[in-house]
Design a protein that fits this description.
With about 260 residues, this protein is mainly alpha-helical. Helix content is about 75%, strand content about 0%. Pfam families: EcsC (PF12787).
Length: about 260
């Protein structure tokens, strides 16, 4: 095992601890506050968010827009893939920040429009990231994996360990999903969209305040992509290092 791979494995151990830690007092407090905020948000806003989430999930599984990325062939080592990932993450963070500033400057109407736009940016990023680490995004099962990565990134702190276990036990998890578009119904997408909304709603409400929206929107979107990138990088690294066939190809480049 080369030095860089050892470093990555140590980072994955730290990440496991992070994903399995108990919710903090802050998490519990914000959850209570989030519930109260959700009760005050107009039903129309809830409907837009719910509909956007549902259609984006379906598009993720069956839409050609997300399945045209070329998988990087296994001639690239882990260090090279990490470098490429960071480069694309930087691009998507800047893109999300610009989008957030634009919609944030427009008040509540454009603030609502930001929800599906940001969701689309995140999905495009995830598919490109998956390709960088060698996943075939045209494979229906790999698209299901991408959705689980998304779920983990924005999961409720009280459910994060369970979401993490479903990712690292992927061979068992994927058995729940038949290889057909109808298997989307096997996912608890209502829970997925509610956790996602709870994760972003608090700061997104501030984005709708006139005069403050552009600054909050840019910062929030940049931060959300950064959080997603942290989880995605470790999930895809884990897949790469636990896939024996791929690991052998990488190791052949670094004979011991």
């Amino acid at each position: 095992m080369d030095t860089y791979e050892e470093k990555v494995r140590e980072e994955l151990k730290k990440w496991e601890t992070e994903m399995c830690k108990q919710p903090s007092l802050w998490n519990k407090t914000t959850k209570s506050l989030q519930t109260k905020i959700n009760e005050k948000i107009p039903p129309k806003v809830h409907d837009v968010m719910t509909s956007s989430m549902k259609h984006m999930i379906k598009a993720t599984l069956i839409g050609s827009e997300y399945t045209t990325k070329k998988t990087i062939k296994f001639t690239a080592d882990l260090r090279e893939r990490d470098y490429k990932f960071e480069d694309r993450l930087s691009f998507y963070k800047k893109t999300a920040a610009i989008e957030g500033a634009g919609t944030g400057a427009g008040g509540i109407l454009l603030g609502i429009a930001d929800f599906p736009l940001l969701l689309g940016i995140k999905m495009k990023f995830l598919f490109e990231a998956a390709s960088i680490y060698g996943l075939d995004v045209k494979d229906y099962k790999e698209r299901i994996f991408i959705l689980h990565v998304f779920r983990l990134a924005f999961s409720d702190p009280h459910k994060r360990e369970e979401a993490y276990q479903r990712v690292i036990s992927w061979k068992e998890t994927i058995q729940e999903f038949p290889e057909s578009p109808e298997s989307i119904n096997q996912m608890n997408w209502q829970e997925l969209q509610q956790d996602y909304r709870d994760h972003i709603d608090l700061i997104k409400m501030l984005q709708m305040i006139p005069g403050l929206g552009a600054i909050v929107g840019a910062y929030a979107n940049y931060h959300f992509l950064d959080d997603l990138g942290h989880v995605a990088k470790n999930c895809f690294r884990w897949r790469l290092l636990t896939d024996e066939k791929k690991k052998r190809i990488i190791n052949n480049k670094h004979p011991q």
